[in-house]
């Protein structure tokens, strides 16, 4: 992406988003994806607020110019910045304010705001952290779960409970499980924004690898189970790497899944192809000696073009033994 081409790129991208007819029911989406900018930047739209993620170094003057163009050429009034150079992971603790400035680069400050996804309200904190409250690529997964969840739902690695909320809105009893108290509280806020009373026992703070075993021992079974771990996580059993350890996680999770239940498995590991991901998931079923039927293979929505690293596989657990 040549810097001088940015206005044209932006205008084309915004026209495309308008043609998707996401609004007015969806006001949170990806306005610029990696394939539109040669991987140099992405932009999320949260209503009137833009969150610009930079994957390469721009000068402070260029950063401000980019933000100015966003405000001039789209309905955005504020632009927050996330600097995401490759080595960001190692710098995250020392330079948090540099990587994710709490104040916008341009326009009024919105420490908190709400936006819609398919008419569902979500709370966002665009300046608080690198993660703003919801992952836009998961929109199709959330929609799918709203339409297809069965019975009791266990939403693991729940983050702000976007997937769980979609099932809860359809009347399902949902347990959201995450290792961060902060995001679970945020999840409860999302429930309340949608007139749902969050029951404290449905928000479990703890380690998924630990809790899957505990729930199994307690005899708790679910008809729908969601697995959406980060590519790299630390848990009770040590380090989890999606490309190496997903089969084991599936094997463990299947103990808590009822016969005929749905398993939704997700990863946004860019280095893992759909084929290798699927191979691991099926290996998990083989180890657990459970039969399955693949129902869906999904990824991000059309606002991501043909890109996006997210892979979602949805399986029905056919029976208690291998068919
Ligand atoms: C990729 S996000 C999940 C996104 C979420 N499923 C959604 O759709 O919005 C990963 C989440 O896993 C949580 N996490 C990481 N390791 C964990 C562990 N061992 N046990 C429980 N949660 C964990 C993090 O706190 C984070 O909220």
What does this structure look like?
It contains ten helices and 15 strands. Strand 3 (49-54), helix 2 (60-73) and strand 4 (78-83) form a beta-alpha-beta unit. It has two domains: 3-124, RNA methyltransferase domain (HRMD) like (Transcription Regulator spoIIAA, 2-Layer Sandwich), CATH 3.30.750.80; 136-319, Vaccinia Virus protein VP39 (Rossmann fold, 3-Layer(aba) Sandwich), CATH 3.40.50.150. Helix 1 packs parallel to helix 2 (60-73) and helix 9 (242-254) runs parallel beside helix 10 (274-288). The protein has helices at residues 6-19, 60-73, 88-91, 96-99, 139-148, 162-168, 181-193, 208-217, 242-254, 274-288; strands at 28-32, 41-46, 49-54, 78-83, 113-117, 120-124, 153-156, 174-178, 203-205, 222-227, 232-235, 238-241, 257-267, 291-298, 311-319. The strands form four sheets. Strands 9-8-7-10-13-15-14 form a seven-stranded mixed sheet, sandwiched between helices. A four-stranded mixed sheet has the order 1-2-3-4. 43% of the residues are buried. Bound molecules: S-adenosylmethionine. S-adenosylmethionine binds at residues 135, 138, 157-160, 162-163, 178-180, 183, 207-209, 228, 230, 233, 235.
Secondary structure elements and pairings:
Layout: H1 6-19, E1 28-32, E2 41-46, E3 49-54, H2 60-73, E4 78-83, H3 88-91, H4 96-99, E5 113-117, E6 120-124, H5 139-148, E7 153-156, H6 162-168, E8 174-178, H7 181-193, E9 203-205, H8 208-217, E10 222-227, E11 232-235, E12 238-241, H9 242-254, E13 257-267, H10 274-288, E14 291-298, E15 311-319
Parallel strand pairs: 3-4, 7-8, 7-10, 8-9, 10-13
Antiparallel strand pairs: 1-2, 2-3, 5-6, 11-12, 13-15, 14-15
The protein binds S-adenosylmethionine (SAM).
């Amino acid at each position: 992406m040549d810097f001088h081409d940015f206005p044209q790129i932006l205008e084309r991208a915004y026209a495309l988003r308008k043609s998707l007819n996401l609004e007015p029911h969806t006001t949170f989406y990806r306005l610029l994806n990696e394939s539109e900018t040669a991987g140099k930047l992405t932009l999320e739209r949260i209503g009137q607020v833009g969150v610009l993620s930079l994957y390469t170094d721009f000068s402070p003057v260029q950063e401000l110019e980019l933000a100015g163009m966003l405000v001039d050429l789209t309905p955005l009034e504020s632009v927050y910045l996330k600097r995401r150079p490759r080595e960001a992971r190692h710098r995250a603790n020392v330079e948090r304010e540099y990587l994710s400035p709490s104040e916008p680069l341009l326009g009024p400050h919105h420490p908190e705001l709400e936006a819609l996804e398919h008419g569902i309200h979500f709370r966002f904190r665009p300046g608080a952290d690198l993660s703003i409250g919801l992952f836009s690529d998961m929109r199709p997964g959330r929609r799918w779960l709203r339409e297809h969840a069965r019975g009791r739902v266990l939403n693991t690695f729940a983050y702000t409970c976007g997937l769980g909320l979609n099932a809860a809105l359809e009347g399902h009893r949902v347990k959201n499980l995450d290792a961060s108290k902060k995001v679970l509280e945020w999840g409860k806020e999302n429930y309340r924004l949608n007139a749902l009373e969050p029951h404290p026992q449905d928000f479990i703070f703890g380690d998924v690898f630990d809790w899957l075993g505990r729930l199994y021992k307690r005899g708790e079974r679910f008809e729908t189970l969601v697995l959406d771990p980060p590519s790299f996580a630390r848990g009770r059993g040590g380090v989890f790497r999606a490309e190496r350890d997903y089969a084991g996680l599936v094997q463990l999770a299947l103990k808590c899944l009822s016969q005929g239940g749905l398993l939704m498995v997700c990863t946004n590991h860019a280095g893992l192809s759909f084929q290798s991901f699927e191979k691991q998931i099926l290996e998990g079923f083989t180890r657990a000696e459970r039969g399955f039927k693949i129902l869906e293979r999904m990824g991000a929505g059309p606002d991501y073009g043909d890109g996006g690293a997210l892979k979602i596989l949805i399986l029905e657990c056919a029976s208690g033994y291998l068919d």
